[in-house]
Design goal:
By secondary structure, the protein is an alpha/beta fold. 39% of the residues lie in helices and 17% in strands. It has helices at 8-13, 69-74, 109-114, 117-131, 147-158, 175-186, 189-207, 221-229, 232-237, 256-266, 294-312; strands at 29-34, 40-46, 52-57, 83-87, 139-145, 164-168, 215-216, 219-220, 243-248, 273-278. The termini are far apart.
Length: 313
């Protein structure tokens, strides 16, 4: 079995784009919807008078999106005047304090057992159906980072309500390549060789199982199964709305080279997908001097979304 701490560098930073703690500076309305198993989905909605909805999708950490400053204060600005929707993961609400340690001991048991990208997509579908019963939203834009990028792509593939997608630093076609790339970037060659063997054994055990009682690097079996079986290239090919795929070239948390390979494969079959890379920036959009370039990225996203919104009016 893979030691839980082995993946700590990856999973601590895999949601770094969306991982600065602070209370939101604007008012959120907290609402709930029911899952088919009777549990509650907690979500937050700002604004009540727009016909446009910006859906912001957090990364892979065990934290409440309510306390995520980068989402609520920064990325919420890329679509002026739109309503903003964020959705909590299974078992989480805003009573969970902020903690960036993936090995945190207070992560809800329900989250560890039930959370996965597929569960999150189901939750977003439920919430969007509830919000759009009166067909209020003429345009719905999805924006997600890291794991949130995969969730956004999956959601767009399943929902006919989505207008466009922005996926940030989601890596390449297969998650295992991203994990191994991150491990290799963090370890000397001998240590990586041993760690790679251990992780491949763990991944194979997950893929061959229908159920496992395990929690590795802050995630349970359902999460690992969904991540390891997802084919992001295939998912993107099924989306029929514009997609902006953003990838930092110095990202060590996912594999920029695997991203490039995926994009080359998609060029002929998915012309609606627009890749955009940032030279010299890391997973959190910091440059080589450690200075944040998020404002530049936000400006580019805002311009791209503006073009997509205008095109459907």
């Amino acid at each position: 079995m893979l030691k839980p701490l082995l993946l700590k560098p990856l999973l601590l930073t895999v949601a770094a784009v969306f991982s600065v703690a602070s209370l939101p500076v604007f008012s959120m309305v907290t609402e709930e919807a029911k899952r088919s198993d009777g549990s509650e989905i907690t979500y937050y909605l700002t604004g009540r008078d727009s016909d446009r909805l910006l859906v912001l999708i957090q990364g892979s950490d065990c934290n409440s999106v309510f306390h995520n400053n980068n989402i609520n204060d920064n990325f919420s600005q890329v679509m002026a005047g739109a309503d903003i929707l964020t959705v909590e993961k299974y078992g989480i609400d805003n009573g969970l304090s902020w903690n960036t340690d993936p090995q945190r001991t207070d992560c809800p048991d329900a989250y560890l057992k039930q959370d996965s990208p597929l569960q999150r997509v189901d939750d977003y579908l439920t919430v969007l159906d509830k919000l759009d019963q009166d067909n209020r939203y003429a345009q719905i834009i999805l924006l997600g980072g890291s794991e949130g990028a995969l969730v956004a792509n999956l959601l767009a593939a399943k929902s006919d309500k989505v207008t466009a997608v922005v996926a940030l630093n989601g890596g390449g076609r297969f998650f295992i390549d991203d994990v191994l790339y991150n491990m290799q970037s963090q370890m000397p060659p001998q240590a990586f060789s041993e760690a790679e063997q251990g992780f491949r054994q763990f991944a194979e055990a997950v893929l061959q199982s229908n159920e496992m009682d395990t929690a590795v690097s802050g995630h349970g079996f359902k999460w690992w199964k969904a991540m390891l079986t997802a084919d992001q290239q295939q998912i993107l090919q099924t989306i029929d709305v514009p997609v902006l795929l953003i990838q930092s070239e110095e990202d060590t948390n996912v594999d920029p080279h695997a991203f490039e390979s995926m994009v080359r494969a998609l060029k002929k079959t998915a012309p609606h997908i627009q890749p955009h890379t940032y030279a010299g920036l890391d997973h959190a959009f910091n440059d080589a001097q450690g200075q944040s370039q998020v404002e530049r990225v936000l400006a580019d996203i805002k311009a791209w979304i503006g073009g997509r919104v205008q095109s459907v009016n």
